[in-house]
Automatic annotation (TrEMBL):
Belongs to the short-chain dehydrogenases/reductases (SDR) family. It holds the Pfam family adh_short. It comes from Desmophyllum pertusum. One of its GO terms (molecular function) is oxidoreductase activity. Keywords: NADP, Oxidoreductase. It comes from the Eukaryota. This is C-factor. Signal peptide: none annotated. InterPro entries: Fungal_SecMetab_SDRs, NAD(P)-bd_dom_sf, SDR_fam. GO terms for cellular component: cytoplasm.
């Protein structure tokens, strides 16, 4: 089971993108394994036919709902939100976890305009527009919380230390710039939505051994997500607008 904080898990309704493999799939597994799992977990992937492990998880979990979603098909977002709204039956969405993303490691000699735009759409534009589509449900969740609730409604954007301008060592132009832009989106959301009780943070999962991260990583998917759940489970207003790694350490912009 994930090594979350000792307080009760604060998010009862969760929406996650990119759950067919890697970090997204592990998030689903560990959310389900919590001693007090979320009441509704909405897990998305581009094709349920190719997500056999995700489908097997849903067979014995009434609180896990699977939805097909290609984050590049922005015109479908409102339909997805409507499906989630129906399932929630008047409740709001406590946690939006924008995890789906792609990597392009192009160097200065290799980078193309088309490559830049493709990665920017997936890693920056899609999370922003999905967040915008979910705003009614996020605001509803925030309005439904009691004043004594320790947690708030959160948008969590999965970023990377490679998005840090201060730590930049060059190359990987499409990936670095798209995630740096996602960090700016996160910061802007944190400013715009504070009055609504909705917070936003960017999290670096570490260098994880996944198809995207490669096998040179120093963290397994399980280790990364266990640590991220500890960070997410302890989020509060003091973290709003921040950029943190999997241990909760603040990262330089």
């Amino acid at each position: 089971m994930a090594a979350v904080s000792s307080r009760p898990w604060p998010f009862k309704t969760i929406f996650i993108t990119g759950c067919n493999r890697g970090i997204g799939l592990e998030f689903v597994k560990q959310f389900l394994s919590l001693s007090n799992p979320p009441e509704h977990i909405f897990a998305t992937c581009r094709s349920l036919e190719r997500a056999s492990e995700l489908k097997s998880l849903s067979e014995g979990s009434s609180n896990l709902h699977l939805l097909e979603l290609d984050v590049n098909e922005i015109e479908t977002f409102n339909q997805v939100v409507s499906e989630v709204d129906r399932k929630l039956e008047g409740r709001g969405l406590d946690l939006l976890l924008n995890n789906a993303g792609i990597v392009d490691r192009s160097t200065l000699d290799q980078v193309t305009a088309e490559g830049m735009m493709n990665v920017y759409k997936t890693n920056t534009v899609a999370p922003l527009m999905l967040t915008k589509a979910f705003l009614p449900l996020l605001r509803r969740a925030a309005s439904q919380r009691n004043n004594e609730d320790s947690a708030k409604t959160f948008i969590v954007n999965i970023s990377t230390i490679l998005a840090s301008i201060a730590e930049n060592t060059g190359t990987m132009y499409p990936y670095r710039t798209s995630k740096a832009a996602l960090n700016m989106v996160t910061k802007s959301l944190s400013a715009d939505l504070t009055s609504d009780g909705v917070m936003a943070v960017a999290l670096h999962p570490g260098w994880v051994k996944t198809d995207m991260g490669g096998q040179g990583g120093n963290l397994t998917v399980k280790e990364s997500v266990e640590a991220l759940l500890t960070v997410i489970g302890s989020l509060d207003e003091s973290k709003n607008g921040g950029f943190f790694d999997f241990s909760g350490k603040a990262l330089p912009w």
